Amino acid sequence: MRLHGSMGLLETALLVLLALCQQCVSADSDILAPPEVSLHNGTMYAACKMRPSTSLPEGLPKVYGQVLFKQDYPHGKLKVLLRLSGFPREGNPELRAVHIHQYGDLSRGCDSTGGHYNPYGVHHPNHPGDFGNFEPQQRKINALIESEATLFDRLSVIGRAVVVHEKFDDLGRGGDAGSLLHGNAGRRLSCCIIGISSPNLWNMHHKQNNRQLGRN
Questions:
Q1: 45 has which bridge partners?
Q2: Are 135 and 198 contained in the same domain?
Q3: Which domain holds residue 13?
Q4: Over the stretch 57-66, which tens digit does the pLDDT of each residue have?
């Protein structure tokens, strides 16, 4: 009888634990959300202040600007706003590749940011931070894109780097190993580390971008 009673108590305890665990799972997404999501009405913002690489050879352009991020929690598409300047004054501006790289490490300029952020171990250009090519206009790149990268959970790009390259991205069609790693986009002109931000920068630059598009 004592054994039977003990088994009944054990079953009751297991049922209580199961109910508590189900509540934990249902609240799991709220636990994983950074506190800034609640502060900004369910949206996460990040910013990256672009500066020329400290290891940049002479003669290459010094690119400055902002790369800004906005994403609704938990499954919204990541929006990326590029506001870059400092490209050469040339008649036929070259396309420039922009990618997210693995490390937010600028100890050796942009050369210490590692390779492309590639959490799935796939060939370029299927990395989530392969933004592609951009054509400067009047020495500037102003572009709004959507990306497969994310600001949330274990695959978050917070703390990683954005890199502007010397050349265009061949999008994996170059027929060699470099093409499948990085698109043969050349040296790293400038870079920045992605950090959590308030909505202020996004709101300001997004309005400026819309006004410029309205004029064009």
A1: 70
A2: yes
A3: 1-32
A4: 899 999 999 9
